[in-house]
Amino acid sequence: MASLLAQVRTRWPVATPVAALLVLGAGSFGHDHWAALVVLAVALIGGIVAAVHHAEVVAHKVGEPFGSLILAVAVTVIEVGLIVMLMTSGGAGSSTYARDTVFAAVMITLNGIVGLALLAGALKHNLVSFNAAGTGSAVATVITLAGVCLVLPSFTTSGAGREYSPSQLGFAAVASLGLYGAFVFTQTIRHRDFFLPVASDERGRATGLLDLDQDGHPDPPEARQAWLSLGLLVASLVAVVGLAKLVSPTIEDVVRDLDLPYGVVGVVIALLILAPESIAAVRNAARNRVQLSLNLAYGSAMASIGLTIPTVAVAMIWLTGPLELGLEPTQMVLFLLTVVITAFTILQGRAYALQGVVHLTLLAAFLFFSVQP
């Protein structure tokens, strides 16, 4: 039995992307039967899990904080593909898919992933520590991106309703890419040490960088294995985007049949995409590496806005119909609460379980009012 389990652990990362691509090819010829939809959904979930796994292998090879960056970008590529695919369907809620999915990703990362990481880490280690300087700069970048791309469209007057005019959308896209690029340069080159895990004393006060070379974990993979994982990561992403295109009408139909707001589609997509990343963040927190968990959370929120909005802006060249990016009043209130609570969380560079519970409560409020606006 142990031998069989070992073989499964070794082979599933290779078999899953290949199987997902085969299911994608077969599903393209027809998938109306419920059994076919189940197979597509299973293949989609498997593709997402495989993509995150291979991103983690590549991340382990290149080290931190590059690892967290690669994982965040890989997840965002999946998200961008899903958003564009849903927008091309031209459904009743296609004009707000980008906003709803990006905002859901922001709320899930800033409250869900951060809350779970802080709670898991604090329950095991009493207090968790992180670098407030690096984390604070990440939070500031996320807030600025969200303000420019999601808040301002509700107050500008050049576009109709909560839309940007073409020139405003172009400015938001360029500004997002520029700010995201500046943060990546800061995180990986200029001030790399600010984003590495810190050691702490019994009161949770940082005492220096954590020695990652003596943590008891496996050594980085060989170059051949890393290149294989990179190729399988690309295959997984292609499969996920294609399968999402096939499954998306079913998601919309379920939401419509249950008489739920169309924004729930974006929430479902974000929850599906970020579930494996949430597990990775909790694992890091349990190992007393909360800094890596926060890198994942804030990096994903940042990439979700900084890469999605420019991509959608380019896609609008051939897509027809409006693009509503501005948040609704309830969404703005929830975002404002998240910003205030996040500021208090990162202020001292250490946290305990209550702060994790506070963030998870905000996530629960977001989910509830998404279903019952």
TrEMBL record:
Localization per record: Membrane
TM region positions: 12-29, 35-54, 66-90, 102-123, 135-155, 167-186, 227-248, 260-282, 294-318, 330-347
Main subcellular location: membrane
Keywords recorded for this protein, A-Z: Membrane, Transmembrane, Transmembrane helix
Membrane topology: Multi-pass membrane protein
Cross-referenced InterPro entries: Alkaline_pH_Ca-Antiporter, NaCa_Exmemb
Residues covered by the Sodium/calcium exchanger membrane region domain: 34-188, 229-371
Protein name per the record: Ionic transporter y4hA
Lineage: Bacteria, Bacillati, Actinomycetota, Actinomycetes, Propionibacteriales
